Amino acid sequence: AAIVSTVAFYVPEKDLLPESIAFDEKDGAFYVGSMRKGKILRVDAKGNASDFIVPRQDGLWEIIGIKVHPTRRMLWVCSFDGPELEGHKTSDTNASGVFVFNLDTGKLVRKWVLDVPGEVHGFNDVTLTRANDAYVTHMLQEAAIYRITQQDQKLELFVKTEGLTYVNGITMTPDEKTLFVAGNEGVQAIDVATRKARMLVVPDGVEMGMI
Question: Which pTM does this prediction carry?
Answer without folding.
Answer: 0.94
